[in-house]
Design brief:
The chain is of the alpha/beta class. The protein has helices at 21-30, 52-61, 70-82, 86-92, 109-120, 135-145, 160-170, 189-193, 209-213, 234-243, 265-270, 280-287, 305-312, 322-325, 343-362, 369-405, 415-427, 441-453, 487-494, 517-536, and strands at residues 5-9, 12-16, 35-37, 42-46, 65-66, 125-127, 151-155, 178-180, 197-201, 219-223, 248-252, 291-293, 296-298, 317-318, 332-339, 407-412, 432-435, 457-462, 477-480, 506-513. It has three domains: 5-82, no CATH class; 105-325, Rossmann fold; 332-342 and 384-536, P-loop containing nucleotide triphosphate hydrolases (Rossmann fold, 3-Layer(aba) Sandwich), CATH 3.40.50.300. The chain has 20 helices and 20 strands. The strands form four sheets. A seven-stranded parallel β-sheet has the order 8-9-7-10-11-6-14. Strands 15-20-19-16-18-17 form a six-stranded parallel β-sheet, with helices on both faces. It is globular. Residues 82-95 have low confidence and may be disordered.
Amino acid sequence: MATNTATCKNGEISIKTIYSRRFVEDLKTTFKKVTWESGTNRWILYAWDVNKMALYAFLERWKIGKEPSFGKDFDTSILKREFFFEKARAAELGSSFEYEKPDSASVYPHQECALKLLMENDGNMLISDDMGLGKTCESLLFARNQKKYPFVVFCPAITKANWRKEISFWADVKVDDVAVIEGKTPVSADFLRSKVSTVINYQVVEAHTDELEDARYKLAIIDETQNIANPKAKQTKATLNIVEDIPCVVAMSGTPMINRPIDLYTTLRAIKKNTGDFTFWNYVNRYCGAVQTKYGWKFDGATNLAELNEKLLKGIMIRRKKEDVLKELPPKNRKYFYIEMPEKVSTLYAEIRKDFSIYYNAVRGNSSEKFTAEKFTMIEKLKKIAIDGKKSKVVDFVLKTHSAVKKLIVYGHHIYFLDFLEKRLNESSIKTYRIDGETPQKDRDSNIEEFNTSSNCVLVCGIKCASTGLNLQTCNTIIFAELTWTPSDHLQAEDRIYRIGQKRRCDIYYLIAEGTIEEKVYNVICRKDKVIKKAIDDE
């Protein structure tokens, strides 16, 4: 890019000019959201964050030239950004859009927008609204208004009870007419056909494939579609086989892409969008950087993300962010705390890490299953040392936070750490509730209900099993005591409290063991998060 020029591509405005203190002061005074990109020596801002006339006046004032397509690109970016808000604004102003809903229900304009888009397209779309914006309400109002009975809901185990209640309220279905499949005990297709709706969790779908295929559903709702992201998983194969013959499918997830674009493909297949540019090989070559190695094909790249985002928004994906549609929702405040390791732990960690580095360098390039297993074993060992080194300080942080806010949620990952934390909290006479992968469903439901009605308590959760489908907005504080490698795990967990009904600022704390693999995990999360935001939100 030449000096003193401005470009606009996919909404990103790039300004490159000779440094001047007065220029910088004027830039930051004129535009509230602007960042400096040191690697390319340019200022970055976005079309939807600026006033067009103010921008043009600024460029003229500093004699900055615009590329020939600048104006067109700017206007196109704004139109694309506004596309899915247009109907919501119309509803806000008094749209004539009429639909059935429960008499006691309040439906937000953005939810009406989604319902109308679903009805216009007869489903077969991905609702990818931010967590907490009411995707469940939107999908069930669609079933109700389009008379898509009977229908089936695929969801995580922890949300089955909630789905039964939501179906009864939003879809006008009696509770007794909702079949909730438990475990792998066979049920007959005749029994399912006698019900208006069926709810089943992913872990047992394979065991019930035959009867679900014979139930002749008119609609499938796939909740938290990241659960079918792995095409090799049995639950993915079974779910896709069942929905293939169901004429209408609505997929739902605030985080449909776990790490990279290939994660999204099974969802596109489920909602019957795997045609044209989105046939498998077209998709992986264009958006996943497909490359053939001596070990086989790899699809773990991320390419042409702005184009992917544009195509998804054209009749495939409904995507709204909280800050765009719920102006009254309080802010989300993230804070990152680095915990210093005790000297003995740091010494042990350094020794193990040195051994790992020697081993890794000796076998670099080896992709055998044995090496992969040994590598992950050593990584888990490093993570355990980091956890052991910080766990006492984590407890101190939790106790201090509890004394200030009285009610909070702590997310961890390993059972032994959750046990340790729960024991220490009980020793401090703090009422503690627990949800992890070993908690029976009935205990989960009662723990959630008691936590939501209590004003002084701590909920200790496993991040993998309690990050989706839960409404915990009676609390406004979360502590992540451990990290996973997946950004969507943390975003999902954050939005258990950051959702409709929340009236207070949400404080979210990440506790990271300094100088350990947790810093690496955190950096990986940030890098993956950038890829996801580019593809899903074009940010």
